[in-house]
Amino acid sequence: MHARADGLRGIAGKSAFGMRQRLVWKRGRVALQGKWKFFWLGLLVLGIWVLYQLFGSQPQRREGPGQMRAPVRCAVALAQDVPHFLNGLGTVLPSSDVLVKSRVSGQLMKLHFREGEHVMAGDLLAEIDPRPFQAALDEARGKLAADEAQLANARRDLARYASLVKGDFVERQKYDTQKALVAQYEGACAADRAACENARLQLEYSRITAPASGIVGLRKVDCGNQISSSDSEGLVRICEVSPCDVLFSLPETAVPKIARTFAQARERQVSVQAWDREQKTLLATGYLLSLDNEIDKSTGTVRLKARFANQDKSLYPNQFVNARLCVDVLKAAVTVPASAVQIGSRGTYVYVLEDDQEQPKGPEKPSRPAPAAKGPSGQAPAAKGACGKVSVRLVSVGLETARFAVISQGLKNGEQVIVDGVDRLRDGALVRVSETVESPRAEPF
Q1: Strand locations in 292-346, DSSP E?
Q2: What is the C-alpha separation between 71 and 86, in angstroms, rounded?
Q3: pLDDT band, very low/low/confident/very high, at 380 (cuts 50, 70, 90)
Q4: Which residues lie closer than 8 Å to 277 by C-beta, 6 or more apart?
Q5: CA-to-CA distance for 51 and 206, rounded, in angstroms?
Q6: For 355-375, b where at least 16 C-beta lie within 10 A, e where not — what string?
């Protein structure tokens, strides 16, 4: 009986547990159905908000002043005369470079110059002991005098023999012998006179003079030293730096244009500029002096020489300079900053700023900026804060430098181009001018 009762209680417990499980499952299902309702309701609200942001709020954003417009910087295309320069590396050379050497051997007695001073041709520089040369000159003169005395005596004897031979008082052979003796003394006197002239030159060479004008360098020999004409270092070097030359090289591809410009420049000289190593300072301006007659096949370049007055001594011998040869001048060429030129799949182009027909609308209109001053082209550049749109303009670029580019086709003088912020632009994009920059000026020539 007890076992049966226990079995009935177990069956009753199991049935009660099953009822509780079904009740919990029903409650969870109802709760889950309620959560899904909230999820779908939230997803619907989110979709409505996204559609509103994409379509409903766009007109309002367009109406706001300055919104949806990319900030850019622009510049005005400028027409100006642009020189076409060819750049080459050059070295300054003196117009004359002379190594002063002694022509005779002897002891250096005195120096008559200061190192670094400017001397003129013919100025006395140094003196060598003249006594040996003076003695040699005196000896030559003495020998000349003795030979001239013998010549005079021989000529008198010849005159006597000439009168005697006519009366057959002396033999004809003696007359001929005396005549030959006179000729011999005449030759000896001529040799003596040449020896005297040589001795005089040796004495003159003991006074060393400047063979050319220029600046004297550092002396190589001090007073008291024995010098000779075979010394390789010489006495001192004289360099003429006013004027001076610049020797530079250019590629062989530029030879036809250089030769044509050099041949046509008869009325005016071809301008050459000398800049420092960093190309920041213009040192001097000169003209093209000569063009080499051949191309260096090892480097593929041709050498040119330019002449500079160098009155201010800004150029120094063996100085490294950057030479710039002006081969042409582009008259009234349209130029823009180099950053305005872009390269794409269709070629070279620029973004041109145009007037926006649909000006910004909104509850508050932006204040109209004051008109800007007109630039060199006669057209006023866009003021700061002005709005507009851009269009892509294909152009042909001619000469291009680090600062500006010459537009040969596709752009007119006075048109405004975008120089900064082009990475966010496309054809027809709306922009707002944040700043107007000045177009670079061409260098003087």
Answers
A1: 301-308, 320-337, 342-344
A2: 38
A3: low
A4: 320, 321, 322
A5: 108
A6: ebeeebeeeeeeeeeeeeeeb
> What is the chain's length?
445
Neighbours of 152 (CB within 10 A): 12
Instruction: Tell me which architecture the domain covering 70-82+332-360+373-436 has in CATH.
Output: Beta Barrel (2.40)
Nearest CA among 82, 84, 85, 83 for reference residue 336: 82
Cα Rg of the chain (Å, integer):
51
Residue 58 phi/psi, 5° resolution?
Answer: -65, -45
Collapsing DSSP to helix, strand or coil, 232 comes out as coil
DSSP string, 270-305: PEEEEE-TTS-SEEEEEEEEEE-SS-BTTTTEEEEE
Nearest to 385 by CA among 95, 119, 71: 71
**C-alpha of 96 from chain center:** 25
Taking the C-alpha atoms of residue 182 and residue 156, their distance in angstroms, rounded to an integer, is: 9
Q: What is each CA distance from 344 to 76, 341, 406, 426, 442, in whole angstroms? A: 22, 10, 18, 12, 27
pLDDT 10s digits, 225-269: 999 988 888 999 999 999 999 999 999 998 988 888 888 776 668
Cα distance between residue 433 and residue 390, in whole Å? 11
Q: Are the C-beta atoms of 258 and 325 separated by less than 8 Å?
A: yes
Q: What gap in Å lies between CA 44 and CA 52, rounded to an integer?
A: 12
CB 98 within 8 A of CB 258: no
- Residue 294 C-beta-side C-alpha neighbours within 13 Å: 3
366 preceded by cis ω (within 30°)?
no
Domains 70-82+332-360+373-436 and 85-93+240-329 share a fold: no
User: Residue ranges per domain, the chain?
Assistant: 1-28, 70-82+332-360+373-436, 85-93+240-329, 98-227
Question: CA 61 to CA 54: how far, in whole Å?
Answer: 11
Q: pLDDT (tens digit, 9 = 90+) per residue, 53-73?
A: 666 544 444 444 444 788 888
Rounded CA gap, 259 and 293, in Å? 11
Q: What is the spatial distance between Cα 278 and Cα 286, in angstroms, rounded to a whole number?
A: 19
- The SS3 call for residue 115 is coil
The CATH architecture to which 85-93+240-329 belongs is Beta Barrel (2.40)
Phi, psi of 317 (to 5 degrees): -55, 140
Q: Which CATH class is domain 98-227?
A: mainly beta
